[in-house]
Amino acid sequence: MNNKTLLRIQDLKFGWRENQPLTLSIPALTIAQGEKVFLKGPSGSGKSTLLGLITGINQAASGSIEILGSEMTKLSNKAKDHFRADHLGYIFQQFNLLPYLSLIENVSLPCHFSQSRKAKALQLSGSLEQEAKRLLDHLEIPAALLHRPVTELSIGQQQRVAAARALIGRPAFLIADEPTSSLDTDARESFIKLLFNECDQADISLIFVSHDPSLQPLFSRHINLDEINLAAGAHNGHR
Ligand SMILES: Nc1ncnc2c1ncn2[C@@H]1O[C@H](COP(=O)(O)OP(=O)(O)OP(=O)(O)O)[C@@H](O)[C@H]1O
Description:
InterPro entries: AAA+_ATPase, ABC_transporter-like_ATP-bd, ABC_transpr_LolD-like, MacB-like_ATP-bd, P-loop_NTPase. This is ABC transporter ATP-binding protein. GO terms for molecular function: ATP binding; ATP hydrolysis activity; transmembrane transporter activity. Residues 7-231 form the ABC transporter domain. This protein has eight helices and nine strands. It is an alpha/beta fold. It has a domain at 36-50 and 77-222: P-loop containing nucleotide triphosphate hydrolases (Rossmann fold), CATH 3.40.50. The strands form two sheets. The chain has a five-stranded parallel β-sheet, sandwiched between helices. A four-stranded antiparallel β-sheet has the order 2-1-4-5, covered by helices on one side. A hairpin with a 2-residue loop joins strand 4 (62-67) and strand 5. Helix 6 (155-167) packs parallel to helix 7. It is globular, with a radius of gyration of 18 Å. The N and C termini lie far apart (37 Å). The structure holds adenosine-5'-triphosphate. Adenosine-5'-triphosphate binds at residues 16, 23, 41, 43-49, 235.
């Protein structure tokens, strides 16, 4: 791991509605490049809201979110779209695979929105198809499935395809929002180990949101959102 800063948040405030208590008030959070962060917190504590702020989907009321030295809150919508496409990979809880595309096409998709990710994928494997195949192979998807519709895959297989899609073109930063919630414990651990392998090879940093405390020891850093969020409990009266 190196010491370059991947993410620096300062004095971040966000509320869903005016004149209502804030959902998030985070004085400071810094994540270094290469870190693998386990982000936890009770249901409704604001984990997805924070990810939405980091990815630029939600707009902060005030404060600073710097990723790789770029201040997200100052970028135009177009510049933010570009930044996201180039530097961020996502794995969602529902995977969001496109049913009318093949596995290879689903995995290659981010390279159609980012020239830099396309260039990296081509440099690694010569073609997008080959790089998609390489990642799917590393994530233990049998070759026989590559041309099947994604709707015929098991949940665990869909999840690994979603991971390959997030990893293609080696973005700096991978965000995974409860990607293992529909798997059993063994499958969760083996998925995370495959994911870590790819992240290590490509020096990709990871923020992984989960409710499952048994996964926590696998990660190099743990963040409890309630401990860094001054607005914690404002919605449900805990504080
Ligand atoms: N689109 C929205 N509009 C208004 N309020 C919202 C919206 N999304 C979330 N909230 C509120 O913001 C708070 C934080 O929600 P969020 O989804 O970020 O929590 P979470 O920690 O990700 O929860 P979970 O673990 O259950 O997924 C909750 O009180 C929720 O009701």
